[in-house]
Amino acid sequence: MSAEDTKYFVHASSYVDEGASIGEETKIWHFSHIMSGAKIGKHCNIGQNVLISSRVTIGNNVKIQSNVSIYDNVTIEDDVFCGPSMVFTNVFNPRSHISRKHEYRDTLIRRGATIGANATIVCGNTIGEYSFIGAGAVITSDVLPYSLVYGNPARQHGWICQCGEKLNVRKKPIACQSCRDRYILENKVLRPLAKSKS
User: Fold this and answer.
1) 103-116: per-residue pLDDT in tens?
2) Which residue has the higher pLDDT, 3 or 68?
3) Burial category of 82 from C-beta neighbours within 10 Å (exposed 0-12, middle 13-18, buried 19 and up)
4) Which of 119, 123, 134 is nearest to 101 (CA)?
5) Which side of the chain, N or C, has fewer Cβ within a 10 Å radius?
6) What residues does each domain of the chain span?
7) CATH for 3-168, among 2.60.120.200, 3.90.230.10, 1.10.10.10, 2.160.10.10?
8) What's 5's DSSP letter?
9) pLDDT of residue 196
C-alpha cells in the first residue's frame, strides 16, 4: 500500500512493516520503525526515533514523544502521554547469553495516564488511569489510578485530576481548583464523582 492510499501520515525516513495496523489520522515522524503485528489506534502522534514492536497495542489519541521504544507485551490504552526518552522493559532479569523471550511480562498503561520524560516502567506492572508519573521516575510496582508518583524507586506523593492538576484531598469536598471536577477518596482509592447535569 502506498503512502497515497493510507489515511495516516508516515515520514519518508520511517518504516512501517507489512502487517502493522495504523488508525486514521495517526502521524509517524522521522526515523521511526513500526513492526509487523503492531496495532496503533486513531489520532496518535508518534515522535522521532520511536520503535513499536510486534506485540504492542496502542489505543486512540496516544502521544509518544521522541526516542521511546515500546517492546512486546506492552498495551497502551486511549489518551496516554509517553514523554521523551521514557523506557519500557519486558524482561525482568535480562542476560545477554540467556534467551528469555518466553518470560516477557505484560505491562498495561491505563487510559489517560501520563509518563514523564526519562521515566522507566519495569515490566509486569499496571499504570492506573489518569495517573501521573514524574520525569525520571522508576516504576517498580503498580500505580494507583489518579495518583501522582515520582522518585527512584517511585513513591506516591499525592493525587491528580484528569486535567493534570494536583488535588488537595484534605479539603472536602475534593474538587479541582482548575476544572472543578469533584472526587471521592475511599479506602485509599480516588474516583471521580459524576458531573451534575446543568
Assistant:
1) 999 999 999 999 99
2) 68
3) buried
4) 123
5) C
6) 3-168
7) 2.160.10.10
8) G
9) 59
